[in-house]
Amino acid sequence: MNRIGVFGANGRMGLALLEAATIKEQTQLGGAYVRSSSSLLGINVNQVNSAADKAISFSDENNVADVDVLIDFTLPAGMRNHLKTAVDNKLPMVIGTTGLTTDDMALLQNAAKHIPIVFARNYSVGVNVLLNLVQTAATKFGDDLDIEIFEAHHRHKIDAPSGTALAIGESIAQAKGWDHDEVAVYDRSQVESAKSQNEIGYSVLRGGDIVGEHTAYFATMGERLELTHKASSRMTFALGAIRAAQWLQNKPAGLYDMQDVLDLK
Ligand SMILES: NC(=O)C1=CN([C@@H]2O[C@H](COP(=O)(O)OP(=O)(O)OC[C@H]3O[C@@H](n4cnc5c(N)ncnc54)[C@H](OP(=O)(O)O)[C@@H]3O)[C@@H](O)[C@H]2O)C=CC1
Ligand SMILES: O=C(O)C1=N[C@H](C(=O)O)C[C@H](O)C1
C-alpha cells in the first residue's frame, strides 16, 4: 500500500488529490498538509471533501510522517519549501506546480540527485500523447508552416501561458531543432513585423470554471491542422498524479516526467 501525503491539501487540486488517493487501488491517503497558519488544522478532511478518507485530518506541512510519497500542486514558493521537506525526509515526490522559473528547475535537478521526483506540467494521458503528436505535425508540413498555441483556463489561474502550453511549445521546438526561448512570442502587440515562420506564438484566455484547454495550430497555405485537448475534470490530473506516485515506488533518485510514467518516450 502506497501512503500518499498531499501538500496544499485545501487547494482545488489538493482536494481532488485527497479524493483520488482515497479511491485509487493500492494507495491510501496518509497525510493532508496545509500551512501552519491554516484554520483547517485538525479538521477532518472528510468535512471538506466528503469522498476523502475519514481517518485523516489536515495537519501542518512541516511535520510529514507516515507517508511513502509526497505530492505538491501549490505555488512556486510552496513547492520550494515542500521540496526541501521531501529531501530532508528522503521521500519521493510528485510535483505538478506550474509557473516555475529556471532557478526552480535547477533546484529540482539538484534535489533529484537525492530523491526520485516526477515533475510534469500536465498529468493527463491526453496531453502527454499530444506532446508526441505535435512533434509529428511540426516536422511533416515542411518549413512553410505557422505554429500557434492557444490555452484557456479558469479565472483563478495565476501563471500564463500555462505550464502545459509551454510544454507543448518546447516539444515542438525540440522537434524543429529550435531554441524555445528564441522562437516564443508571448505578446504580438510588441512585434512590429509580420509573423516569421521560425516562431511559436502563444495566446491565453482566462474565464469562469474552465478546467484546462489547449490547442496547437499548424497552418500552411491551403490547410490547417488543429490539435486540441480539453480536460473536463481535475480528477484527471489527480488520478494521473497518483499513478505517478505509484510508479515512483522503488525508483532510484532522478528527475522523471509523466511521459516516463506512461512509457511514451
Ligand atoms: N500538472 C498538472 O497536471 C496540473 C497543475 N496544476 C497546477 O497546480 C497548482 C495549484 O493549482 P490549484 O489547485 O488550482 O490552485 P489553488 O490556488 O486552488 O491551490 C493552491 C494551494 O497551494 C497552497 N499554497 C500556496 N502558496 C503556498 C505556500 N507558499 N506554501 C504552502 N502552500 C501554499 C494554497 O494554500 P492556502 O489556501 O493556504 O493559500 C492552496 O492549498 C498550480 O500551479 C497549477 O497550475 C493544476 C492542475 C493540473
Ligand atoms: O492551473 C490549472 O488549473 C492547470 N494548470 C496546469 C498548467 O498550467 O498547464 C495544467 C492544467 O491545464 C490545469
Automatic annotation (TrEMBL):
Amino-acid positions noted as binding NADP(+) in the UniProt annotation, renumbered to this chain: K54
Major place of residence: cytoplasm
Reactions listed under catalytic activity: (S)-2,3,4,5-tetrahydrodipicolinate + NADP(+) + H2O = (2S,4S)-4-hydroxy-2,3,4,5-tetrahydrodipicolinate + NADPH + H(+); (S)-2,3,4,5-tetrahydrodipicolinate + NAD(+) + H2O = (2S,4S)-4-hydroxy-2,3,4,5-tetrahydrodipicolinate + NADH + H(+)
Pathway the protein takes part in: Amino-acid biosynthesis; L-lysine biosynthesis via DAP pathway; (S)-tetrahydrodipicolinate from L-aspartate: step 4/4
Key words of the record: Amino-acid biosynthesis, Cytoplasm, Diaminopimelate biosynthesis, Lysine biosynthesis, NAD, NADP, Oxidoreductase
One Pfam entry name: DapB_C
UniProt-annotated binding residues for (S)-2,3,4,5-tetrahydrodipicolinate: H154, G163, T164
Binding site for NAD(+): G8, A9, N10, G11, R12, M13, D53, G96, T97, T98, A120, R121, N122, Y123
Keyword Iron-sulfur assigned: no
Annotated compartments: Cytoplasm
Annotated Dihydrodipicolinate reductase N-terminal domain residues: 3-123
Active-site residue list: H153, K157
PROSITE patterns in the record: DAPB (PS01298)
Stretches that traverse the bilayer: none
Function statement: Catalyzes the conversion of 4-hydroxy-tetrahydrodipicolinate (HTPA) to tetrahydrodipicolinate.
Protein family (similarity comment): Belongs to the DapB family.
Protein name: 4-hydroxy-tetrahydrodipicolinate reductase
